[in-house]
Specification:
8-stranded parallel β-sheet, 42% helix, 353 residues, binds S-adenosyl-L-homocysteine, alpha/beta
């Protein structure tokens, strides 16, 4: 099957996603790695993840910190706590910090603007926000405060499936593509992504998702396996109801995730692609490396203090990670050294080598 970027139309992508022949897959991995090297180079950019709140008003059926997922102790970090994590990230040499959280009106627009200003003034690192669907006024405020990027996964291009797994907050209409377009106009770099293997995701849907990354010219694309979170509706009867026929349903396994990442590198050759935490949870020994050698060029080590990290329980497996931020950072840096790759310096914005 063709692997050149132009030949990768919907049917070719869907066929590659279903591919199981080891020799064909080896060719896909080699091509994704070669395109990654030629277009974004050997640098692996490190973005320190700070999970600033686990409060959430949404009822996303897959997510363990959704309002309906319970019981869970909730927390919000203070400005000083967040700033301390950002300083630590800067000291580790990270060029970016990512402030992520549930959709939490208690984390107000002005508060986040103060946090962004403080981080920029004190550390100079790039700031990415990932705080869900927020008002135009908040997004504008944060951009004016100096925020550089925003991550908002569209989760699926299948609008019926989206409505089932990501219900509207009453009185509002969830349109993540509209927010992504708005943020791009405001000058943010925009990041998006999908989970692999959510019940109801078919090979055709996933091929459409990958083409949407290209059509929207996304600057960052995060792809990770769907991990069943036991406290959520999607892990129960809803998941069974939504699941597609076995020959159409995308599995939430490592090789399918890697195929989606590799194909994304081919159709979006100069975008930033993280080797995601979810992938490393699915395969603790090799997931991160497999991602980095099949198209990825970014890692997001966790800077959240362990006592909060265990409560940011969007999927299982995270709660077991009790190591300090230093240990996590050292491990990631050793892994990149071991691959003969370099640590990215500076903010690591989207660009060509
Ligand atoms: N509230 C923010 C940040 C959510 S966490 C937002 O909604 O954008 C970031 C991503 O984690 C989500 O976009 C989703 O794709 C992923 N995620 C959530 N639950 C997950 C699960 N059970 N398995 C794998 N990924 C999950």
């Amino acid at each position: 099957m063709p692997l050149s970027c132009d030949a990768l139309d919907h049917d070719a992508i869907a066929a590659w996603l279903r591919e199981t022949d080891p020799a064909a897959l080896a060719a896909l991995w080699r091509r994704a790695d070669a395109v990654r090297r030629a277009r974004v180079g050997d640098a692996v950019h490190l973005r320190g993840l700070i999970e600033i709140t686990n409060y959430c008003v949404r009822h996303c059926a897959y997510c363990g910190i959704a309002a309906c997922a319970g019981p869970l102790r909730r927390y919000r970090m203070t400005l000083e706590e967040i700033l301390a994590c950002a300083r630590q990230g800067r000291d580790f040499g990270f060029g970016t910090v990512v402030l992520q959280g549930g959709e939490d009106p208690g984390v107000t627009g002005p508060f986040v603007a103060d946090v962004v200003r403080a981080i920029k003034a004190e550390t100079g690192v790039a700031v990415t926000l990932s705080l869900g669907e927020r008002s135009e006024a908040d997004l504008r405020l944060w951009r004016d405060a100096g925020a550089d990027r925003y991550l908002l996964r569209f989760e699926t291009t299948d609008q019926d499936l989206y409505a089932r797994i990501h219900p509207n907050v009453p009185g509002t209409l969830s349109d993540r593509f509209a927010q992504l377009r708005l943020m791009r106009r405001m000058g943010y770099e925009i990041g998006t992504g999908v989970m692999i293997g959510i019940p109801g995701q078919t090979w055709d849907t996933l091929a459409d998702d990958i083409l949407a990354f290209r059509d929207f010219d996304m600057d960052m694309i995060g792809i990770g396996p769907y991990l069943r979170s036991p406290r959520t509706p999607l892990a129960g009867p809803l998941g069974l109801e939504l699941a597609a026929a076995p020959e159409e349903q995308v599995p939430s396994d490592e090789v399918t995730t890697l195929k989606a990442m590799a194909l994304t590198r081919l159709v979006c050759p100069d975008t930033n692609i993280p080797s995601t935490t979810a992938l490393s949870i699915l395969d603790p020994s090799a997931g991160r490396v497999n991602g980095l050698t099949r198209g990825a060029n970014v890692i997001m080590p966790n800077l959240t203090p362990p006592e909060y990290r265990v409560l940011y329980d969007i999927y299982p497996g995270k709660a077991g990670i009790h190591e300090t931020a230093e240990v996590l950072a050292d491990r990631v840096i050793a892994l990149i050294d071991g691959l003969g790759r370099t640590i990215g310096t500076g903010p690591g914005s989207r660009g060509r080598v």
